[in-house]
Design a protein that fits this description.
homodimer, 232 residues, alpha/beta, 60s Ribosomal Protein L30, Chain: A, Alpha/beta knot, 2 domains, 7-stranded parallel sheet, 4-stranded mixed sheet
Chain lengths: 232, 232
């Protein structure tokens, strides 16, 4: 097999399995190459380089024990915080560590029509295969800006609204219909002290403190924002 | 080691790790025995039989690759549908198959103050270690009634409100403040045709149909019910 034009560098990531690759293509992401195991078929319509793999090669590069017979190299789009400046609703993920949590957050952000998601440096890589899988393809449909320093948040030109278990206005009593950026803190540490939060929301709930995780809390707040905005 | 009084039969299940065992004890579940690996310590206060394990035994019985050095046998409480009769809000899980989804549903039900969760026959076992783990201990705090036939639902004496992606009143427009049972259908098949649904809710959202899974949908609706009830 000769030299191919596909680049697998830090500007690209691996997408595993037909369903996710189809989502990437449907959302117009740049699929550079598809690597096809002997029992696989490439997804049509990507214009990507197709590389046939020898038997048992895909097991060595895929992230799961029983990989699907197809992986793709997909280019990471160039985005900056200012692309989201003045958007109606942005979610800022402040060092969210768990891939499953970030994936679920991307799903609820897509479902609630969030304009984009900003990941503060220290968050899990959104192009990690576990995040892509947990997002069920939402990663391809919600603009994500990763590896952002705290002092870049001002470029959003949005009020920064933090969530807290112990301070602020109940999220159900707050006016969530105006543009804002919702800052969700890490599982372990909450919202960083260094983020210049303009106001705080608290998610009033019953049960133990641990009963809601950051992904569920995000889901609850972005859907309340969607509800308030639809009602206006 | 002589014969012990702990019974590990179909009326009991295994709880792995100190944090979950502490939750079981705090919630007054009947811990029959704690099995302690050489580097472990039993949780105090359970009154359970303590069994010291030889090295490497716990790896053979635990469900994870690197188990914590402590597991417990906990008795499943006897509950029936009629225990939830006339409750304010019950969630009926109709053949939910994924342990992570059911665990998350239990968490949001706890957080939203749901009175109990009814699992239709064909749902994943709520005492499966993956469900217990994904519930983050919520299983011990929300009454769960498992393996229920469809014709037992009438014993709830509650209107059965189904959720659907394509029919019914928007959940944000419905009155969720009166007592009802929320029926959440399986990931693959939705709500069973045989359940005599009294009315339908639809979860209006943006994005693709797949963007919300059953656990997130449950979270959204039970928190809207909590919001409406708190506002009254």
């Amino acid at each position: 097999m000769g030299r191919r034009s596909a680049r697998w560098d830090e500007g690209a990531f691996v997408v595993e399995g037909r369903i996710l690759i189809e989502e990437a293509i449907a959302a117009d992401w740049d699929v550079e190459a598809q690597f096809v195991a002997p029992n696989g078929e490439p997804v049509a319509g990507s214009g990507a380089t197709i590389v046939d793999l020898a038997p048992h090669v895909i097991e060595r590069v895929a992230s799961t024990e029983s990989p699907q017979p197809l992986i793709a190299i997909v280019r990471i789009p160039h985005r900056s915080v200012s692309d989201l400046a003045g958007a109606r609703l942005v979610v800022v993920a402040d060092r969210i560590a768990d891939p499953g949590n970030l994936g679920t957050m991307l799903r609820s952000c897509e479902a609630a029509g969030v304009s984009g998601v900003v990941l503060i440096t220290g968050s899990v890589d959104p192009y990690n295969p576990k995040v892509v899988r947990a997002s069920a393809g939402a990663l391809f449909h919600v603009p994500v800006v990763a590896d952002i320093a705290l002092n870049e948040l001002q470029a959003l030109r949005l009020p920064l609204v933090g969530t807290s278990s112990h301070q602020g206005v109940a999220y159900t009593d707050a006016d969530l219909s105006e543009p804002f950026a919702l800052v969700m803190g890490s599982e372990a540490h909450g919202v960083s002290d260094e983020i210049p939060i303009d106001s705080w929301l608290t998610i009033s709930h019953v049960g133990r403190a641990e009963s809601l995780n950051v992904a569920m809390a995000t889901t609850v707040v972005v859907f309340e924002a969607l509800r308030q905005r639809a009602a206006r």
